[in-house]
Amino acid sequence: EIPLRLVGSEMCIRDRDKQHTIKEGETLQNIAFAAYGDSGKWYLIAEANQIIDPFTEVVPGKLLRIPMYGN
Known about the structure:
two-stranded antiparallel ribbon; 3 helices; about 25% strand
């Protein structure tokens, strides 16, 4: 069983997950690199936030859930 807590109106955060507010010029790839050390893990963030089209849905000010990955 994984504990979840509600954030905002629709986002559930696992206790070990992090949050990130998108800044101007950021992409899922560079956010993934900062979080995991691997830009190729961008899809983990996309899936956790139900992002289908990162070209239109990754906008400054949007709050993202950064799921815990690995240990």
